[in-house]
Amino acid sequence: MAEIRFDGRVAIVTGAGHGIGRMYALELAARGAKVVVNDLGGARDGAGADQSAADQVVAEITAAGGEAVANYDSVATMKGGANIVQTAVDAYGKVDILVNNAGILRDKSFLKMSEEEWDLVIAVHLKGAFCVTQPAVKLMKAANYGRVIFTSSTSGLYGNFGQCNYGAAKMGLVGIMNTLKLEIANYNIKVNTIAPTAYSRMTSDIFPPEFEKKLNPQFNAPMVLYLASEENDVSGMIYVMGAGWYGRTAVVSGKGVCIGNGIREIHPEEIRDHFQQVNSLAETKPHASGANIFEYMTPLVSK
Known about the structure:
Elements: E1 10-13, H1 19-30, E2 34-38, H2 52-63, E3 67-71, H3 78-92, E4 97-100, H4 115-143, E5 146-151, H5 154-157, H6 164-183, E6 189-195, H7 221-227, E7 238-242, E8 245-249, E9 252-253, H8 268-273, H9 275-279, E10 285-286, H10 294-301
Parallel strand pairs: 1-2, 1-4, 2-3, 4-5, 5-6, 6-7
Antiparallel strand pairs: 7-8, 9-10
Helix pairs in contact: 3-4, 4-6
């Protein structure tokens, strides 16, 4: 089996001081990548800062014979994102791979959530991915090569009690990917989204202790490394994983039903009478872009 290698490649991993991000950084470096280990070093809720988190991962990588540098900027500002990318340029001259992994939690039920709890989570997850990805993709476009990975969550894809801020941010990343994949398709840049599951400081009070080994963060790294590799040729996909299971998920549309003739008014009673067909996902189809949804409307629009 030919080994997937990253010799000569430069990778940025945000939020790489702990948990899943740390594992990505370690395994990329072990396969030859030069890694920028970004971590503000804050608590799970984003409070505080501690440079030792990133420093410790860099020390692990260099002790094993790899190459890595630390960065302590917050992803949540354009200045921070630019500094993260500049760290890679200053140390290694380029950026080939970006893994957007940084995140915080401020869980609260929808009716009790404060504006601050909403804004902080959106800033780190959603805005943060934009702030780092934009300067990184500019370099990738100039080099005609790049691999970008966004980190979504089952909380955004399917929902989870008490995480409307987190879920909204994580689903928003799918929206960024869906547009970005079209804009950079001609530059050999592949952009994909993952929804990992692991036992870490982010989830240690959610999963029982006996899940710690079953939900090893390492189990998420193989998919990330494959998507970050030269061998990967897919773009615009979403992959869910955990405990050694990997699968694609997608936003799909059912066949639906065409009502009327494309000219006359349509009435709510007609929706009611055809609701079984409207609501059915018996014949589903994923779409490469928003424009593809017009395929369903063609019989009416062309009239």
